[in-house]
Amino acid sequence: MTTRGVKSPYLRGVIDGLPFLAVIAPFGLLFGVISAEAGLSVLDAVAFSVAVIAGAAQFTALHLMTDHAPTIVVLVSALAVNLRMAMYSASITPHLGHLPVWKRALTAYFLVDQTYALSSLEFERREMGVGEKFSYFLGTVTPICLPWYLFTLAGAWAGAAIPTDMGLDFAVPVAFLAMIGPMLRTPAHIAAALVAAGVSLAFAWLPYNLGLIVGGIAGMMTGAQVELVIERRAAPEEAA
Questions:
Q1: Do 123 and 17 belong to one domain?
Q2: Do residues 168 and 37 make contact, with C-beta atoms less than 8 angstroms apart?
Q3: What phi and psi values does residue 100 have, to the nearest 5 degrees?
Q4: Do 171 and 227 share a domain, yes or no?
Q5: For 175-190, what is each residue's pLDDT tens digit?
Q6: CA neighbours within 13 Å on the CB side: how many for 101?
Q7: pTM attached to this predicted model
């Protein structure tokens, strides 16, 4: 499906966002099912998705909650997973930072991986006014963020009907593997993932899965160092 000839920025956003339904649907359903398995009500599961609207952070928080981790550990872990949103915000500010406060708040709430990726690409390749940019952004939100709530609801309903002894807890690590796998595109990504996994296992003895946070920090530091080494090696070649 192409947006060639589509004049409405909102409709272009909708069309560009539609392919992501192939990802949003299964993960929304999965989160709803696992929420029910963890003991959350249908209302709790939907409220979770509405309040957080970040798949990886939601899976992380839910896993820690089922392990009865302290609230502060759950919050810090979820925030750590979502640190990338701060970079998204800084990147999108030159395009949408001049909007009224309520529109900026709406943008901040719906700024997730997919809406950011689509919007930043569109804003760079097409001349648009701030109003048109906001309309395009809302267009990407429509098939990406709103269905997340609906699929969470459907998954929670389905999960409530599944016996608790079926052991659906295996779905959480599978979900993370499915999310992380496509991201391992560069040596820095691969190194970060390997170090994070190794350190997390080495510190698995820490309570409340704090080893995951230690591993995540180690992975980020490793990835940054690998990127730095690659850039330093590339600099002499470019100069030559």
A1: yes
A2: yes
A3: -60, 160
A4: no
A5: 556 556 656 777 888 8
A6: 0
A7: 0.73
